[in-house]
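for ur thesis appendix - TMM27 protein. copy paste whatever u need, i formatted it the way the template wanted (i think)
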Amino acid sequence: YTWDANEEYLFKAMVAFAMRKYSRKSTTQISNVLLCNVTDRVSFWFVVTDSSKNVTTVPGSEVEAAIRMNRNRINSAFLLSEKTLQFLKITSTLSPPVEPSTPVWLIVFGVVLCLIVAAIVFLIVAGIQQRKKKNKESTERENLEEKGEVTVTVENGSPCEALDLKAGHVNGVFAADDERFTSL
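the 3d part is after this line
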């Protein structure tokens, strides 16, 4: 960045502009802004004088307030930012970090709650469908039994004889065990 007489003139003009906007008077001229100790690294200090009063320099608090009020215009004139154009003793006017309107924990809580509700709804719907399927199979079996149709069930690849569910079926293996108990 080359700092020459034109850049100095622009800086003086921006400071004079800031002073005029702050004080709402047109007494500050470019000649009232004095640059001192200008170095090659573009480091200097400046003083603003007031020729309309008997005071030779404008108080530092007024200059700070004027620069703080018009800092964005000064930065824009030099195509710089708060990090590249630094005024000592004047706090930067960086905008505060953006905070979301809703806290992060509330968003996470909402997502987890939605997942839990979706899982519960899925389990309820799956249970209802399974119950309907089971009821449909049992009614079909009862209808076949009422009609007298005998069905052959196949378990593990081998056919099993159908049980007569109305009359019942006695398993001979357990017949001997029934005699041990006395009936009431």
